[in-house]
Design goal:
about 0% strand
Length: about 200
């Protein structure tokens, strides 16, 4: 009977020691912090985009005053992001919050697409240096957003594997580490947009 107790003691001791090694608690903390830091990078790029929008809208407005529906849609989408969605790392652990965040960003993207399509009807606007600079900055920001989202998803994949596989699973359950949510493509993104002239 003592041999079994000693064996159980060794098993518990080895599981505890694994819990605090690189595949245990400290490793999970490090992975979670990497995910949270990358989430902050994603937020930063979305904020950069949100900061560019008022200047872009003001420039287009100078040429296309009657396009108020588009301006209103952009203003509403931007306001929704600022008031109804809390931007912190809790978004990454809650599927519904992540969906709401992505939906709000999608509405803003849609409004921006409509805004940029207006420019086709205004040749003077298309050649305006301020507009061209803002458009270039926005394109660069969209590329940065895509890059940061990919990096975020890569880190989430690594973190989620650690949290869901043995022995990290035991440590994760003991210390409350939760699975993180991925960025997902918007519905319909699998189909190429149709362009007609």
């Amino acid at each position: 009977m003592k041999k079994i107790s000693f064996f159980k003691f060794l098993l518990i001791l080895s599981l505890l020691s694994l819990s605090f090694t690189s595949c245990g608690y400290n490793g999970l903390v490090e992975a979670r912090e990497e995910v949270d830091a990358q989430w902050a990078n994603v937020e930063s790029q979305y904020q950069r985009r949100a900061d560019l929008i008022p200047n872009l809208v003001a420039t287009v407005k100078g040429y296309a005053e009657h396009e108020t529906e588009v301006y209103t849609a952009i203003a509403n989408a931007r306001a929704k992001l600022g008031t109804s969605i809390t931007l912190d790392s809790s978004v990454t652990e809650d599927e519904e919050k992540m969906k709401a965040f992505q939906q709000a960003q999608g509405e803003l993207t849609s409004g921006l697409s409509r805004l940029l399509s207006i420019t086709e009807a205004y040749p003077d606007l298309k050649s305006n240096e301020n507009f061209l600079d803002l458009q270039s900055q926005l394109e660069g920001t969209e590329n940065r957003i895509a890059t940061e989202r990919k990096r975020y998803n890569d880190l989430v994949g690594s973190y989620n594997k650690s949290v869901q596989s043995f022995p990290g699973l035991i440590t994760a359950k003991m210390f409350g580490f939760k699975k993180k949510e991925y960025f997902k493509a918007e519905s319909g993104a699998e189909h190429a947009p149709s362009v007609s002239f």
